[in-house]
Amino acid sequence: MSPTQLLHRWVELFNQADADTLADLYHEDAVNFQVNFKPIEGREAIRQKFSEEFATAEMVCIIEQILECGEWGILEWKDPLGLRGCGFFHIEDGKIRYQRGYWDMLSFLRQHKLPLPTE
Q: Which of 4, 15, 70, 84 has the fewest CB atoms below 10 angstroms from its CB?
């Protein structure tokens, strides 16, 4: 699967809130680093984080563009509430080895009426 194909599948599963199948797109020792949090290491930890996030808020990823360069796929996205972000995915052997995402956590929390950090 090419990075572009994998990212289309990733968005499809994300929008279905399917943490189990979504996590299967990652290598066993993958790292997911959303810049608002510490890196998450390992497929099972990534699965758990997606499960927690899907239980916390209804999230929708709308593709603005997907770019591909060698083993890298870049996803620029928005959501129906106006939040925007991007993700960088290193793909090896058809699975995600490393993901890095950039988005505004404070805007996300406010839009979903979730508690704001106190620190």
A: 70
Q: How many CB atoms lie within 10 A of CB 14?
A: 19
**HSE-up of 84 (CA within 13 Å, CB side)?**
3
- Helix H or strand E encompassing 110: helix 105-111
Cα gap 58→78, rounded to integer Å: 14
CB 77 within 8 A of CB 84: yes
Walk across the sheet containing 62-69 and list its strands.
40-41, 26-34, 95-103, 84-92, 72-78, 62-69
DSSP assignment string, 79-100? -TTS-EEEEEEEEETTEEEEEE
HSE toward the beta carbon, residue 7, CA cutoff 13 A:
27
> Percent of the chain beyond pLDDT 70?
99
pLDDT in tens, 5-47: 999 999 999 999 999 999 999 999 999 999 988 999 999 999 9
